[in-house]
Specification:
The complex is a heterodimer of chains A (113) and B (113).
Chain A lengths: L3 E4 L2 E4 L5 E7 L5 E8 L3 E10 L2 E4 L7 E6 L2 E6 L8 E8 L8 E2 L3 E5 L1
Parallel strand pairs in A: 2-11
Antiparallel strand pairs in A: 1-3, 3-8, 4-5, 4-9, 5-6, 7-8, 9-10, 9-11
Chain B lengths: L2 E3 L4 E5 L4 E3 L2 E3 L5 E7 L5 E7 L5 E3 L4 E6 L4 E6 L8 E8 L7 E2 L3 E6 L1
Parallel strand pairs in B: 2-12
Antiparallel strand pairs in B: 1-4, 3-9, 5-6, 5-10, 7-8, 8-9, 10-11, 10-12
The chains are: A mainly beta (113), B mainly beta (113).
Chain lengths: 113, 113
Amino acid sequence: DMKVTQMPRYLIKRMGENVLLECGQDMSHETMYWYRQDPGLGLQLIYISYDVDSNSEGDIPKGYRVSRKKREHFSLILDSAKTNQTSVYFCASSLPDRGQAPLFGEGTRLSVL
Amino acid sequence: AQSVTQPDARVTVSEGASLQLRCKYSYFGTPYLFWYVQYPRQGLQLLLKYYPGDPVVQGVNGFEAEFSKSNSSFHLRKASVHWSDWAVYFCAVSPTGGYKVVFGSGTRLLVSP
């Protein structure tokens, strides 16, 4: 069953704490994404990964970094989280062919207090 | 740069009535286009996708969309709306030759009895 799994689903952190969001997929998709979703803004691309250790900044990478050491796993890290990073974060994966529609996880709802 | 505009933040339709959700894209060339649906507290699910070819694309649950190069549009339609269609709908574009997928800000569909 094709699935993108995100952990945790809900997370509350204090400003200045480090945050680790994890994403896994069982389809061996080469391409993986991290987006954040805010009301009225749709989804904004944070990072895209083309394969292990092959990552590229998206439209809003500032304040975030990523790690991809295995094809099935893609992490989003917030070093010293800020209150304006409160959002819903979505991970997605797709085949590397042009124009493939990403398959999304259920999201992680992060609150930074 | 590519972009997607969904001009209607909210649309209300009576159950059983027809539906059109608007999407305009900005891209030089013919892109790949997608419509996704997001139910409350869930991730995005693919409704349908357009690859260069037949301008009318059929999706799941009776949805279809029509691509128009002259109007730079990719509107979503459904002949008869059901209460279960109450959700947020996102239009997205991916350039030919690339992997980046850009999303619109979404349209919230409300279904009245």
